[in-house]
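Homework help board

Subject: predicted structure for assignment chain

Our instructor gave us this sequence and asked us to write out the predicted structure in token form, then describe one feature. I got the tokens but I'm not sure how to describe them. Can anyone check?
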Amino acid sequence: RRRKRTTIITKNKQQMKKTITLFCLLMLVLVQAPAQVRRTIAVLGDSYSTFQGFIPEGNAIWYYSPANKQQTDVERVEQTWWWQVIKQGGYKMGMNNSYSGATICNTGYDDADFSDRSFVTRCRNLGNPDIILICGATNDSWAGVKMGEYQYGDWRRADLYYFRPAMAKMLNDIRLYYPNVDVYFILNSQLKDDINNSVVEVCRLYDVPVIKLKDIDKKSGHPSIKGMKSFAELVLKAIK
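My token output:
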């Protein structure tokens, strides 16, 4: 009887050890789980970041499926820079609020009013991201918008028709509406020096890293399939 009782006690102890071990493993998984949650990326962009069916309805598009072969060879969303960043980086896709031809400020081509599509207008509509990638200033450079003075507060509507005040207001609003979100500005190559220098200066004040594109293959001034791949690699390297 004594031997049988000892055997039962030993089995109970072994069972208890197994239970404790399983409990510890479960707790370890639960503790590590938050670190494995995929972060969501939102994009605020112009034509470089558009693709048919992946941006808000009504926003102008550059990249279609099937593609206009005279315009670009990019014809699948998987070929876009932002899709590659999200896929290869293990992120989740959030809002892509891109608008072909959009300027950061409210002034567009031929001095037209672009306040309905400008970055400074759209920057509050980015969903609930963990990371915001801003790819802009290309159209401001191409359209030859007026730079204005550096201005970091007390903006009036008239101020936002100039690049520097609009750039600051956009980043100010993003910091205000999206606290604790990682923000990056992607700066195109071959833009005017005034645009480049202003982007770097304003981003420095708002603590926004600038990712500078270089050697990006383009067709009609826009990234080709090859260019999109290089584009994605530069961004991934910067945000990882």
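Reply (TA_rk): Your tokens look well-formed. For the description, you could write something like this. The helical segments are 2-32, 81-89, 119-122, 138-143, 163-177, 193-205, 225-239. That's the kind of observation they're looking for.
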